[in-house]
Each structure stands twice: as structure tokens, then as C-alpha cells.
Design goal:
It is a single chain. The protein is α+β, with helices and mostly antiparallel strands and about 220 residues long. It folds into two domains: about 5-80, 3-Layer(aba) Sandwich (Glutaredoxin), CATH 3.40.30.10; about 85-200, Glutathione S-transferase Yfyf (Class Pi), Chain A, domain 2 (Up-down Bundle). About 50% of the residues lie in helices and about 10% in strands. Strand 1, helix 1 (about 15-25) and strand 2 form a beta-alpha-beta unit. Helix 4 crosses helix 7 (about 160-175). The longest helix has 21 residues, at about 130-150. The chain is globular, with a radius of gyration of 17 Å. The chain starts with a strand and ends in an 11-residue tail after the last helix. Bound molecules: glutathione. Glutathione binds near residues 16 and 55.
Length: about 220
């Protein structure tokens, strides 16, 4: 039996689930998935069976439960895949700062541009002055990381790290809302979209039947 189980929400909508799932895939881990469709009358009760916080994702590793997407990424890196953080201590500190910033911030984008990985497109929707300011910050992070740390590959710190897992749902939003990207941001977004794990996630999202009229998950 598989030892690791990741409990997630709908692949189309659950941006937090995508972060943990992608980090685990990129770590090369084998794990079982429990998918709990969000926004149904039984969702809360079902999630509570697994998750102390009542939210997904939650990782179950034997007797241990780890919740909060960033804590799951930290645990996976600590326990199974040190390479999910940059090897250099200063770069690791910056990668952690950015990951925490994404985890706790960008509320305007989250609110106005919910993730919707299917082939739905809403060009220009959700853009507000608050979102624009957050996009500027995201582009500045991407530019700086690619210039300073990105030489060893096409991810923000060269090779794939937790930071890329944190930004993957942002890339999804940029596709859905057709956010204009300069060439360096586009190259990075394209590299995320080309990851086989991302393609697997999107294909699964496309095959889901649930459709939410209002969603912000
Ligand atoms: N900060 C949490 C956010 C988790 C979260 O909000 N999960 C949503 C789905 S993406 C959820 O479980 N919603 C179900 C509910 O609130 O009933 C994390 O990083 O994991």
C-alpha cells in the first residue's frame, strides 16, 4: 500500500492543492490521492475526516498529518527531497521568503482571478488597481530570480524548487485571464506549463465534471 496520501480539492479550482501536489510530483514521490470536490453539502464533513484545519491540501504520511500547502512542501523537502530548496543558504532564505510571501499574500489576485485550469478563458477579467500592483510585484520577483539565480535551468532558481510550486497556480491564472507577459515572464510561464506534471494536472482538471458559478478556492 502507498504510504503517502495527499488529500486535495477539485483540480480545476484548488490552487492550494496544486502547490502541494506539484511539489510532491517534482520530488518524484509516489503517493495516493484522495480528491474531495469542494462546495458540496458533504465537503466540510469529508475534509474534516482527514484535515485538522478543515482545509485541503493535507498530507498523510503514516500516523503523521501535515496541513497548509507551504508546510507540506517544507515537510516533503525535509523528509524526502532536499533539492526542493536551493542548495545555497542565502538563496534558500530568499526562496523561503518568496514562498511565504506568495502563501500569505496576493489577496487581490486570489479574490479577483480565481484559478480555473480548464480551457475557459476570461481575457482581461478581474483586473483591478490592487491586482495590477500585485502583478508588478510578481513580475519583479520573477525577473530578479531569473536574472540572479536562474542560470542553471528555466525555473526561478534554475532547477525546480518550492517557489515554482507556489507560483504554478499564478501561471494558470495568467493563462485563464490572458495576462500580458514580457518575454522573460512568458518564457518562465511556458516552462511551468510544459512540466509533464502540470499537463497531467490540467488534463485531470479538464475531465472533472463539477462547475462552480462562484468560486474562490
Ligand atoms: N492556507 C491554506 C489554504 C487552504 C484552503 O483554503 N483550501 C481550500 C481549498 S483550495 C479549502 O479547503 N476549502 C474548503 C473549505 O473551506 O471548506 C493552505 O495553504 O493550504
Amino acid at each position: 500500500m502507498t504510504k503517502l496520501t495527499l488529500v486535495i480539492g477539485n483540480k480545476n479550482y484548488s490552487s492550494w492543492s496544486l502547490r502541494a501536489w506539484l511539489a510532491m510530483k517534482q520530488a518524484g514521490l509516489e503517493f495516493a490521492e484522495v480528491r474531495i470536490p469542494l462546495d458540496s453539502p458533504t465537503t466540510h464533513e469529508e475534509i474534516r475526516r482527514y484535515s485538522p484545519s478543515g482545509k485541503v491540501p493535507v498530507l498523510i504520511d503514516g500516523d503523521l498529518k501535515v496541513w497548509e500547502s507551504l508546510a507540506i512542501c517544507e515537510y516533503v523537502a525535509d523528509r524526502y527531497a532536499h533539492h526542493l530548496w536551493p542548495a545555497d543558504v542565502a538563496q534558500r532564505a530568499i526562496a523561503r521568503s518568496i514562498s511565504a510571501e506568495v502563501h500569505g499574500g496576493f489577496q487581490n489576485m486570489r479574490q479577483n482571478m480565481p484559478m480555473d485550469c480548464r480551457r475557459h478563458r476570461y481575457p482581461g477579467a478581474g483586473m483591478t488597481p490592487g491586482v495590477e500592483a500585485e502583478l508588478d510585484r510578481i513580475f519583479a520577483i520573477w525577473r530578479e530570480c531569473r536574472e540572479k539565480f536562474g542560470t542553471g535551468g528555466d525555473m526561478l532558481f534554475g532547477k525546480f524548487t518550492v517557489v515554482d510550486a507556489m507560483f504554478a497556480p499564478v501561471v494558470m491564472r495568467f493563462v485563464t485571464y490572458d495576462v500580458k507577459l514580457d518575454s522573460s515572464a512568458k518564457d518562465y510561464a511556458d516552462a511551468i506549463l510544459a512540466l509533464p506534471a502540470i499537463q497531467e494536472w490540467v488534463a485531470a482538471a479538464c475531465s472533472e465534471s463539477e462547475s462552480f458559478a462562484h468560486f474562490n478556492v
